[in-house]
Design a protein that fits this description.
- The chain has 20 helices and 25 strands.
- With about 675 residues, the protein is an alpha+beta fold.
- The N and C termini lie far apart (about 85 Å).
- GO terms for molecular function: ATP binding; metal ion binding; methionine-tRNA ligase activity; tRNA binding.
Length: about 675
């Protein structure tokens, strides 16, 4: 095994067309942050690199829909994302962006070297072109009918109804999203990275040389290589991105998949003039923390780019995670089915570590996993509060109660005392073993075993009882508990940094490096403790119910948005329609019908009389809000008794997809009795 001098950690660049959600955090940023903090505690040379991915078609589409520039979009979301990461405590050494000048220059230089050394192949192909707007259309700018399922708004690259990957030419009745016209096929020239030429090398480098990679990563890479690799375009016709640095080429940019990973390099350049040490020195270990949707880019395509360039290190490991679902449904930005980080930080102030803990304990390391608000509450209350918080609080409170907040000197140790203290080093070894293998979820469980150890020891020894007969023994018990508490501030620092900072404050204890974990004399006798507070607090059912309602409201809104109108009824003769006499009436009185939930009794001025109408709108309108309101009323409907009240007509309502009713009314006030034609 290579003994590296330093580690470069890269984290997948979040796409700057929306905020960060828990899926991003669980898949990439929380595990990367834990690992980086662990290495820093070991005093290792480590850099953690991040930034926003700001090019590509979805951003131009969003800008077009909002009537702003792509730069406006990426500025907005880059700032939201960066601020959210900072508040949440993701400890980037640099968080940059791909619209920066440094990145454009770095990406252009990288492309130019491969271009000048003949590493690309040139191909001319036919692509859809919008003649009215004089531009080639990216796949996402084309919609049409899916040939697989018949969905009428499938994109040129994928049908979001059935999930089938498509090419634009497969669409039935393709339409330009820019002009609304049918596009034409036109020849265009692009450059391609010939992945097929690197198949033999990739097999040797990954399939033979990196069998230690996680099974989900290794398996996906093997499947791609075994299926045969094809040349992949590195340029596209678009006006937003890094311009292709070739003379005589206009309206072409680097494909976003090509320029985005170069963002790791440009961000490191911005951070330090010694950037080449982290990218080109063979004694640097490079790790890519990503989600499974990025495996092919970071294990096949980006390494091929680096290999073709010839001077850069290749990744030593790519510990990719699977996906996190939300309440048994796939997280979706477009459907707003997510827990957004910036909203969580506002709604759960001071609980950054609670979310980190739950996402780590539930990390989708080898298969997709599910986040539920009930599990969030349970883990907080039953683990953080009842185990970790309970232990340190009792140890501190008892020390203040019995020894005025001063660390007591230990006496002679029992066998149980010795076993307990020896277990700290054993737990340290297990945590290290898990972290070094990128089993972050397992590492957290092992680290929490230290809190479980302390909790069990305190419960077994019962110093509150022993104090009545043996004060000296209580000194030993509490000293051991405080040494465990001090060790917890090291062991859990990578996982719960905000909480461990607070705990160090209670202990009046400075931050220690990883080598001190396992020491049983971290806090000297007579050391003065500060007044403790609760490290964690219970989360009540009412708090969780608010979050669940928020999700249910989102689900209802999505169902409404996706609901299709009922088909039209059978045709009728014009004379049939003419028989209906619909007028504008004004509500004079309104009251609920006793012992009913849905019925209101209305008195309506029809212009030629004042009549009573019973209407089933009580769930949607308060009686007092209807007074003076104008309605559409069918006046020649045969009267009918409802709950003993004769109803003399029917007011017209629109029924929404969820069954809710809205009164049909004129958009401006008219004379009562006006006919509706």
């Amino acid at each position: 095994m290579t003994d590296f001098k330093r580690t470069l950690i890269t984290t997948a660049l979040p796409y700057a067309n929306g905020p960060i959600h828990i899926g991003h955090l669980a898949g990439v940023y929380v595990p990367a942050d834990i690992y980086a903090r662990y290495l820093r505690l070991k005093n290792e040379d480590v850099l953690m690199i991040g930034g926003s991915d700001e090019h590509g078609v979805p951003i131009t589409l969003k800008a077009k829909n909002e009537g702003v520039t792509p730069q406006d979009i990426v500025d907005r979301y880059h700032n939201i994302i960066k601020e959210s990461f900072q508040k949440f405590g993701i400890s980037f050494d640099v968080y940059s962006r791909t619209s920066s000048k440094t990145h454009h220059e770095t990406a252009a230089e990288f492309f130019k070297k491969l271009y000048d050394t003949g590493k690309f192949i040139e191909k001319t192909s036919e692509q859809y072109y919008d003649e009215e707007n004089n531009q080639f259309l990216a796949d996402r700018y084309i919609i049409g009918t899916c040939p697989k399922c018949g969905f009428e708004k499938a994109y040129g690259d994928q049908c979001e109804s059935c999930g089938t990957s498509l090419s634009p030419t497969e669409l039935i009745n393709p339409t330009s999203m820019i002009s609304g016209n049918q596009p034409v096929l036109k020849e265009t020239k692009h450059w391609y990275l010939p992945l097929d030429q690197y198949e033999t090398w990739l097999k040797e480098w990954i399939l033979e040389g990196h069998k230690e990679w996680k099974p989900n990563v290794y398996g996906q890479v093997k499947s791609w290589i075994d299926s045969g690799l094809q040349p992949r375009a590195v340029t596209r016709d678009l006006n937003w991105g890094v311009p292709v640095p070739v003379e005589g080429v206009e309206g072409k940019v680097l494909y976003v998949w090509f320029d985005a990973p170069i963002g790791y390099i440009s961000a490191t350049k911005e951070l330090t003039p010694e950037w080449e040490t982290y990218w080109k020195d063979p004694e640097t270990r490079m790790l890519h923390f990503i989600g499974k949707d990025n495996i092919v880019f970071h294990c096949i395509i980006f390494p091929t780019m680096l290999k073709a360039e010839g001077t850069f290190n290749l990744p030593e490991n790519v510990p990719a995670n699977e996906f996190l679902n939300l309440e048994n449904d796939k997280i979706s930005t477009s459907r707003n089915w997510a827990v957004w980080l910036h909203e969580y930080l506002e709604e759960f102030p001071g609980k950054e570590d609670v979310l980190k803990y739950v996402l780590t304990a539930n990390a989708p390391e080898t298969k997709d996993n599910d986040f539920t608000w009930k599990d969030f509450q349970t883990r907080n209350n039953n683990e953080l509060v009842a185990i970790l918080g309970n232990f340190v609080n009792r140890a501190l409170v008892l020390t203040h109660k019995y020894f005025d907040g001063e660390v007591p000197a230990p006496g002679e140790l029992t066998n149980y005392d010795k076993e307990t203290l020896e277990s700290i080093s054993a737990i340290k070894a297990e945590v290290e073993k898990s972290l070094d293998s990128f089993r972050i979820r397992e590492a957290l469980k092992n680290a929490m075993d230290l809190a479980r150890l302390g909790n069990k020891y305190l419960a077994d020894e019962e110093p509150w009882k022993v104090y009545k007969t043996d004060v000296e023994r209580v000194k030993t018990i509490l000293n051991i508990c405080l040494q465990i508490s001090a060790n917890l501030t090291i062991c859990l620092e990578p996982f719960l940094p905000f909480s461990m900072e607070r705990l160090r404050g209670f202990l009046n204890f400075t931050k220690q490096d990883w080598s001190k974990l396992g020491w049983t004399n971290l806090i000297p006798e007579s050391h003065k403790l500060n007044k403790p507070e609760l490290l964690f607090e219970k989360i009540e059912d009412s708090v969780i119910e608010v979050q669940l309602k928020k999700l249910m409201d989102t689900k209802k809104a999505n169902e409404l948005a996706e609901a299709k109108a009922k088909p039209a009824k059978d045709s009728i003769e014009f004379d049939d329609f003419g028989k209906m006499d619909i007028r504008v009436g004004t509500v004079l009185e309104a009251e609920k019908v006793a012992k009913t939930k849905k019925l209101l009794k209305l008195k309506i001025d029809t212009g030629f009389d004042k009549r009573t109408v019973v209407s089933g709108i009580a769930e949607y309108y308060k009686p007092e809000d209807l007074i003076g309101k104008q309605v559409s009323i069918l006046v020649n409907l045969e009267p009918k008794k409802l709950r003993g009240i004769e109803s003399q007509g029917m007011i017209l309502c629109a029924e929404n997809a969820d069954g809710s009713l809205s009164i049909v009314e004129p958009d401006k006030k008219v004379k009562s009795g006006s006919e509706i034609r």
